[in-house]
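Retro notes
What went well: the complex prediction finally ran end to end.
Inputs used:
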Amino acid sequence: MNRKNRITGTLFIGAAAFSAFLIIAVIIILLVVIIIGGKDTFSWKFLTSFPQDGMMKGGIFPAIYGTALLVLIMSVAAVPFGTITAIYLTEYASEKSILAQTIRFAVRTLATVPSIIFGLFGLGFFIKFVGGQMDSVFLGDQLKWGQPNILWASLTMALLTLPVVIVSVEEAIRAVPREMREASLALGATKWETIRRIVIPGSRSGIMTGTILAVSRGAGEVAPILFTGAAYYLATLPVSLSDQFMNLGYHIYIMATQSANVDQTLPIQFATTLVLLMLTFVLNLTAVIIRSRIRRKAK
Amino acid sequence: MDNPIENKNFIFSNESLRKKFRLSEFLSEKIITGVAFLSITIIILIFFFVFRETLPLFNQKKEAIKIESVQKQEQYNGGETTVRTNASGQEQYGVTTNDTMMIANQAKVEDSVVREADEATIKSLIAKEWVPVSDRPRYGLIPLLVGTLKITLLAILFAAPIAILAALFSASFAPYWLREIIKPAIELLAGFPSVVIGFFALMVMASFFQNIFGYDTRLNAFVGGVAMALAAIPIIFTITEDALTDVPHSYTEASLALGASRWQTALFVTLPAATPGIFAAILLGIGRVFGETMIALMATGNAAIISVNPFESVRTLAATIGAEMAEVVFGDTHYSVLFLIGSLLFIFTFGLNALAEFYVKGRLVKRFQGK
Amino acid sequence: MKEPKIKIHDLTLYYGEKMALNSITIDIPGNEVTALIGPSGCGKSTFLRTLNRMNDLIPSVKVSGEVLVDSLNIYDQQIDVVNLRKKIGMVFQKSNPFTKSVYENVAYGPRINGISEKKKLNEIVETSLKKAFIWEEVKDRLHDSAMGLSGGQQQRMCIARALAVNPEIILMDEPASALDPISTAKIEELIFELKKNYTIIIVTHNMQQAARVSDLTTFFYLGELIEYGKTKKIFTSPDKKQTEGYITGRFG
């Protein structure tokens, strides 16, 4: 009896350990394959030059530029919005109030909406509705804002990353000790003064974490920008908010599925993937480190 | 204003203690609450505007659909501002050519696009063929639904056992130092953009599996399923691991005190006690896979076929939107049907999420309070 | 006889369903040190916090009765709580400096009162730190983080911070309980000096401290005010048996 138990036990624990290591092995294989496939093409020149010969050669600078611009505009929209919402949830909302619970539910729902739906929303709301109205009000018959461009794509992405910002900032605000708030109030400060002078400065690291995580998501997601502004081949960089833009993730997708000569562009594909992977990895790692510092401080 | 700091002998008069209206306090509270309220507004807006674009389908009276002319800022090879249209009159942007698209599409893609109001469109939604671009457009959602279900099923079949076992290992068997390696490593996987996973599946996994199993179609439900599993595993793992570690120590200690071994405790006490959380984890994993677009676009073959064979290509609902929305004309039937698919996806994930929340909250509370 | 600074009449406080303070009536004289003693959980800290309405921060709290400060009922609807707290300052059990420099900590109060002129702030900061007997120790590190100070120094800085707002009454909730004997002695010396210009109410667990430092002593037990009077009397010949029991260590 005991022997049978021990064998079953060993098998069971073995299977569990195997599963864990299998996952890690796949992660490592993925990383190794991408690195091997892309390392030869990866270079400073690759990162800073434009594509040539119809994407057969050259670099991916416009894709990097476009991605950077995208996440920049996205952050400008999402970070203040998310921070203020987090402040509301921690400082002003009474836990029992229906409004607070509904807002929390809305944020959680936002977090689980498939990314392609955001793209549809971007199309139906930002491009058609807002853009269309802007055109008819300001430009009459012309069509300028009622089209895919970097502005709408960025705002669409901002909605997608909003929950990430809210969660991170909320965590940091809650880590600010209650005693500090009490000290401030006991000195005759108002609630808003306490938030402004003590709570927000004390949550800086959380705001940073939230921003970094949002940027990481925004740089890697492709579905929301498939038809809200990303383009595969643009000869010039976007200069105005109504321009389209190139994007790392979108570039990988199109090149891998639709390029004229897959074998020739394969090294570029791998290198671009490597760039995107490195970018998101570094961003996530930074956020995780800052976050663990917040958690240690809270203890 | 009498400033108490300046005048040392100041005695607070009744006047200075009278309730003061502070504009900044009032404004800050109102503005902050208002901004927070926007998140509710956004969800409502998403509902509204995604559904809005499906309305033309339900409006049977219209005869023809307005084609909005779109001038796009296309710049190809040196500054030509042209609107690129292919032979069938569809506008294209952002895509070089359609020819080399790796679509093993068994449906015929014909040249002409018919822009007629299709009064039978609603009926055709339950047809078995998805051929939106042809003389007689057919918008049968069944193959797409079947494809999505196939992929989801395969993905969860791969992901759930592995993720749950791995979580069990991490929570119950692994020494502390090992746990601190496993958890972050799998969180790392969560941070991989899905386009990267799709790329990996397309370039590496597809050939790898083809060599092993020797099937014909390189990109199929199996490859897609494995790739999707990679996306679902971190979610299922994290939530399961949390659920397992949340099981009260008193449970596990009681079991061990009765003479059960560690693995028996883990399997027969800890795991069952964490069932609501594990269920929620799987639900959220399903939700993730159901709506995943990029992996589906790159690894599944994108053929709207109804078949039980896992080694045949499939087309998912999300991938259909992703692949075709860029090609449709604003406002025509195809456009509206794609939005309809989006609405269905939205409703589904919304319902799934609500289920996970209420089920876990309900059952979990009951469980740990002794039914 | 001088009019008492604070007159409390029939003060009752509920945390939800639970009664924490039961009909407290007491007069607290100005420019003297009143000590609140009693076993843990007897309500002395809660009582202290009703005086600057810090209990308002807890949603389930209900207060009835009158608290008259300079003949003004601070629980009146028309009272501005924010300004009230500038008149009645508080020092907490565990020092709670802001994660700012010493200077910015002490200057916090004046700043929120609208004082931004450098010269004025410097003056206030220096004066307050001197009053708190800590100027010499920090004058060369004013712009370093307050978190780098020792526990005793942090607490004295918190006292300076409270003084910078120029209150009339200072509430101290076991200010020295987390400190070593030397720091405690410094704070007691400080209290003795401060009472010349401020009214001080101090909660303390330490009976010897109460005996050393206060002019009046109040004994709380289970949310009720059992006895109060001149410190000397309370500690040598208290009227109530319970008081005597606590003082002599029979319970508590």
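What we learned: The radius of gyration of chain A is 24 Å.
What to try next: split runs per interface for comparison.
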